[in-house]
Amino acid sequence: MSLAASIALALLALHLVVGAWDIYATFWLPPGSTVSWVLQGWCRHWPVLPFAMGVLAGHLLWPPYMYLDNGEDPLPPGAVRAAVVERPVDGPAPPR
């Protein structure tokens, strides 16, 4: 199994466990035991936590083509590249 498949499987398992816990906590535990309530409490107690989650999400989801300088195009033709990379800074998008 490749590394990407292992990571995908681990993330799927994590989501299933958290989802199962949330369902269990919603129906059989006292109010405030769900994942969202716990995270809200942590974020109120440690305000840097939402900032850190935003930085992490930004780094995970930032388009990789901004850093490629070897001619490779990781995006399919006509995807975000046409809207972001080829658009003039001071004008509308070029016609297709």
Structural description of this entry:
The protein is an all-alpha fold. The protein has a domain at 3-62. It is built from four helices and no strands. The longest helix has 26 residues, at 3-28. The radius of gyration is 20 Å and the shape is extended.
Features:
96 residues; mainly alpha; 4 helices; 0% strand; extended
For the secondary structure, the number of strands is 0
Largest sheet: none
Report the mean per-residue pLDDT as an integer.
78
End-to-end separation: 41 Å
Unreliable stretches covering 5 or more consecutive residues = none
The string of secondary-structure elements, in order, is: HHHH
Short description:
By secondary structure, the protein is mainly alpha-helical. It has 4 helices and no strands.
Give the topology.
Elements: H1 3-28, H2 35-45, H3 48-61, H4 80-84
